[in-house]
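pasting for the record
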Amino acid sequence: MPQRDTKPFIIEQLKEGRFDFAAIFGNDHPVELEIGIGKGRFLINEAMRRADTNFIGIEWASRYYRMAADRAAGRHLVNIRFLRDDAAHTVNVNLPDASLSALHIYFPDPWPKTKHNKRRLIQAPFVAQAARVLRDGARVLLATDHEDYAQQMEREFSDSRDFTLASRLIGPDAPEGITNWEQKFRKEGRTMFKFEFLRKVR
């Protein structure tokens, strides 16, 4: 099968400077960001379901982010873009203040060994940057199958004066999601931990 032209769906990486979402999408619709999209299943489904919202997906694995862009191209979606970059760099350097209406982070690498915990994405500096880039009332949605990381996620966001906990759902209370990772982990019988935090009004 011939390759589809995925270039219009890919944002060129910026070393410095802020993205202009109005220029990227050609409109001023709300923007939601997913970090670690994998094959893009969740993000593409959301883009198909909500045409009045723009979506950006970050994925470091080149194979996956291009696969997601190809799938979006095949569906002729105009409200979705993809970026291959380190998530912390994008959030810290490229996202404008108060530019996102939601931030999705599902099953980030848990770095389970204690000596590697410092590599986890969800830490105080990241939470501070999330507060900067999210609009008042915006949502942060988190999911993991790793209990220790779940505790860290909840602690870091709860300790921030910029966020309030909206929901905490564990095990059978956690609604089933559609990401590839969640489908895999549920089949393995792992416990799901899901949180929703809201950006407080400044």
